[in-house]
């Protein structure tokens, strides 16, 4: 299958830090379809060879295990092309169409690795130039809008040019192997389904923790914040995959229909429940991995009076028969104690314990990063001669050991799916819009509240109020157990 893959924003950080290395890995693994061309477009004037040199230099910053040899890069570089484009000029889109039509590839993927405010103008110009035929797909990188109104406007323009099946809204978390294993865990095994409901599960925690700060991206992050950056997309997508009903088939729309039902079932926020069930924080100076780090207000390009949240913890419920009354806790933040993403499913305790002094809730821990795997926490006899003495044990599955061959990275997987037209791991517009509807009352309540975010020391696990949030239900966060 021949393909043309076009990157708008071809010299930007996302393209050279994430997308080009992912494409090279697909090429190295022999998974990139033959007969492909990769075109980068940007405002700079440069030749194909100059762009290839630019990418080769940037590859020096890639993890050494994923860095190409000179011979590998020379072969990969033959796929790379460059074209100067001013995204506001219709004649430049006409020139791009001529470049695409000259070969007539089976599939054309247009990846918008630009700021989202450019999405509408790019899509309108693509439509005017006729670059929206049935063999064309457009990939939209997050964030898709800043709020519900902007998301609706972006989607309105996109839908006026492309069919829903042609518009691929990318969330790189969905490309992670561990996230894909959520589907396998839920719907490929009979073991958990009878237990996957309110009668057996006490609560579910979803944590996406980062040890890094905002770095040099302070101006961008300060306009975004943790709720928009991580909860509205990544965390809610994980929640839908954990809570969704079994789809009738593995078809993309069957899966996305069930995810949408979960989003519509989330308990809506009011100003009162935002104050009670949502904690926002902002990191102060502290130490991470033994190294002193500045507070958020001292970061580059951050206003000294910023009220931007770098931490969010919240409690919600899925209001349907399967999950009624089960609390879901979502938590994300920067400058936390470790880089860690996991889902912890805590099961209810046995109704009548017969072993005195041995209480331990069974838990299923789904680790997403930095390593991915499964842990099942149980109680077992010590074998010490006294059968009344039980100890916690865990069954630990490390996916890297279980599948020793090199595994496909998130962007590599999603780029290959975009080329092949596999839509399962892309977000549909109604899902994305419903997620915005759910978070908007939180954003509005914060905008009306002059109270600054709660401070927390870098290297910790957020404000004390986050622990109090779960303690109301008699729970603790995973690292406190």
How does this model look, in words?
The protein is of the alpha/beta class. The protein folds into 2 domains: 3-169, Rossmann fold (3-Layer(aba) Sandwich); 174-410 and 429-480, Dihydrodipicolinate Reductase, domain 2 (2-Layer Sandwich), CATH 3.30.360. Helix content is 35%, strand content 22%. It contains 15 helices and 17 strands. The strands form 3 sheets. A 9-stranded mixed β-sheet has the order 16-15-14-13-7-12-11-8-17, sandwiched between helices. Strands 3-2-1-4-5-6 form a 6-stranded parallel β-sheet, with helices on both faces. The chain has a two-stranded antiparallel ribbon with strand order 9-10. Helix 5 packs parallel to helix 6 (148-161), helix 6 (148-161) packs antiparallel against helix 14 and helix 9 (225-243) packs across helix 10. It is globular. It comes from Rubrivivax albus. One of its GO terms (biological process) is glucose metabolic process. The active site is at 234 (proton acceptor). Pfam families: G6PD_C, G6PD_N. GO terms for molecular function: glucose-6-phosphate dehydrogenase activity; NADP binding.
Break the fold down into its secondary structure elements and pairings.
Layout (H helix, E strand, L loop, with lengths): L2 E6 L4 H16 L7 E7 L5 H11 L11 H8 L2 E5 L5 H12 L5 E6 L6 H10 L7 E5 L7 H14 L5 E3 L7 H11 L13 E9 L8 H5 L2 H19 L8 H14 L5 H7 E7 L1 E3 L2 E3 L17 E7 L9 E7 L6 E8 L15 E7 L3 E9 L8 E9 H4 L7 H11 L8 H20 L5 E4 L6 H8 L10
Parallel strand pairs: 1-2, 1-4, 2-3, 4-5, 5-6, 7-12, 8-17
Antiparallel strand pairs: 7-13, 8-11, 9-10, 11-12, 13-14, 14-15, 15-16
Helix pairs in contact: 1-13, 5-6, 6-14, 9-10, 9-14, 10-14
